[in-house]
Design a protein that fits this description.
345 residues; alpha/beta; Quinone Oxidoreductase, Chain A, domain 1; Rossmann fold; 6-stranded parallel β-sheet; 15 strands; ER; Enoyl reductase (ER) domain-containing protein
Length: 345
């Protein structure tokens, strides 16, 4: 009889998850089987559960993408240097595998491609490790989308600045960390209670997006600092217009580039000599796999080893394991601030 494991199965659009046993997959070429110890939740998870977006090819299925666990088995020919039982962080998602439920993270055993698997240092718990995958991939893809290589190293003399609108979100915190490591002078918007935390992660100056004069505050600070502010990442909805309002005053005659992580409406605001691009990995599999490897085995692996990248934002661990995923997702949907919800499996 084939081995089985527990999974939070999504039987139809609208959920809820039902915990049942399903067959444990055998890893094939370029696949690792991960024993899941903790998963982190993302807004895309409740969108998929509740309205089936991004599209789910068929039901029943398993969704989710953020995993920390241990290597259980490697597929034939896979030589990653990851021995069995190695503690790892894994991007385990059906997004790029035709929605395959073998890749959804909300289960005890999940497949992952080696490009998206990196060693979890001993000083971090599984719960801390689970916060990285999708947020790191999204934050880093924003830079490459607008032509900024992940090995960029600006110096203070370059005076290159960036505006991150929505810094206290999960993606935003890694946008801040990565921007600092790229050498940018980092300007961030966040609620006032998160300003000090943003500075701890690498922000040079933080502004309350609720302030009526927030645009003029940012423009004044950039002019005072004497920086070139013609790059931005819109992490949250409704942030493009104020971001363009800032760039209009700070970019001068230089072209500006904006990465936009929420879905970009066709009739979105525009600005002369400014390119606004939806933040999304390449549709070409070879290019995408190379990029994922650069994000995980490159940037994240190096950052974890040197302790220059830390888990963020703050972690809220919810009880109940797989059976608790419905209520944990409902808490995320209701709204959290500078918090990543994690479930131990």
């Amino acid at each position: 009889m084939a081995p089985t494991h527990a999974a939070a199965i999504l039987p139809q659009k609208g959920g809820p998850f039902i915990v049942e046993d399903r067959n444990t997959p055998e890893p094939g070429p370029n696949e690792l089987l991960i024993e899941v110890k903790a998963v982190a939740l993302n807004p895309v998870d409740y969108y998929q559960r509740d309205v089936g977006l991004p599209p789910i090819p068929s039901y029943p299925t398993v969704i989710g993408s953020d995993v920390a666990g241990v290597v259980a088995k490697a597929g034939p020919g896979v030589s990653t240097g990851l021995a069995l039982a190695t503690r790892v962080i894994a991007f385990a998602s059906g997004f790029y595998h035709n929605g395959s439920p073998d890749y959804g993270s909300f289960q005890k055993y999940v497949l992952a491609q080696p490009e998206g698997v990196v060693v979890l240092p001993d000083h971090l718990s599984f719960e801390q490790g689970a916060v990285f995958p999708l947020a790191v991939l999204t934050a880093l893809t924003a830079w490459t989308t607008i032509g900024i290589s992940l090995d960029t190293q600006y110096t203070p003399q370059d005076k290159q600045a960036v505006l991150i609108w929505g810094g206290a979100s999960s993606v935003g915190t890694f946008a801040v960390q990565s921007a600092k490591l790229l050498g940018f002078t980092v300007y961030v918007t966040a609620s006032s209670q998160n300003h000090e935390y943003m500075k701890q992660l690498g922000a040079h100056a933080v502004f309350d997006y609720k302030d009526g004069d927030v645009v003029s505050q940012i423009v004044y600070q950039a002019q005072k600092d004497g920086v070139k502010l013609n790059t931005a990442h819109c992490v949250v909805k409704e942030s493009l217009q104020p971001t363009l309002d800032v760039l209009k005053e700070t970019k001068g005659s230089a072209p500006a580039m904006v990465a936009h992580s929420p879905v970009l409406p066709q009739d979105h605001p525009t600005l002369d000599n400014t390119t606004v691009l939806f933040n999304c990995p390449s549709a070409d599999k070879a290019a995408r796999d190379k990029h994922i490897d650069q994000c995980f085995n490159g940037w994240l692996g190096k950052g974890l080893r040197s302790n220059t990248v830390v888990p963020s934002p703050f972690i809220q661990v919810e009880a109940g394991g797989l059976e608790g995923l419905n209520s944990a997702l409902d808490k995320l949907k209701a709204g959290v601030s500078s918090t990543k919800i994690v479930v131990s499996i």
